[in-house]
Amino acid sequence: MKRIMGLDVGEKRVGVAVSDPMGWTAQGIEIIQRDGRQEWLDQLAKLIEQYEVETLVVGFPRNMDGSIGEKGEACQELSRLLEKQFKIPVELWDERLSTVAVERTLIDADMSRQKRRKVIDQMAASWILQGYLDAQGRK
């Protein structure tokens, strides 16, 4: 069974999560450094192939009032690029407060700031993907 991959796309890093084969749970798997345009896409392509991904879910940063700002527009543009490059569906998923929620969880777990920086993007990708999976289960 094919999997769904969640991405938390930042300017410098991309958190990556993947669903289990049944599409029930999300697991953070990697953080890709977004240095050059093609290098990170090549790394993503390897993960898509390795996990037999059939759909990408990209965190979509909306403003708190629901409007789409500059980062949201950049995400829409990126999702079109990903769809064209990998020839699989790309869904945008509202990620408002995902990073904040993950950061709170890590602080509550008494994790140091340095350790939080290493895992927050990956955990945010899991949070985004899990929200998407849960919503699909309700449909």
TrEMBL record:
EC number: 3.1.-.-
InterPro entries xrefs: RNaseH-like_sf, YqgF, YqgF/RNaseH-like_dom, YqgF/RNaseH-like_dom_sf
Biological process, per Gene Ontology: rRNA 5'-end processing
Biological role: Could be a nuclease involved in processing of the 5'-end of pre-16S rRNA.
CDD domains assigned: YqgF
Compartments where located: Cytoplasm
This protein's name: Putative pre-16S rRNA nuclease
MF (Gene Ontology): hydrolase activity, acting on ester bonds; nuclease activity
Pfam families: RuvX
Cellular component aspect of the GO annotation: cytosol
Domain of life: Bacteria
SUPFAM superfamilies, A to Z: Ribonuclease H-like
Keywords assigned: Cytoplasm, Hydrolase, Nuclease, Ribosome biogenesis
YqgF/RNase H-like domain sequence ranges: 2-102
Principal subcellular localisation of the protein: cytoplasm
Family indicated by similarity: Belongs to the YqgF HJR family.
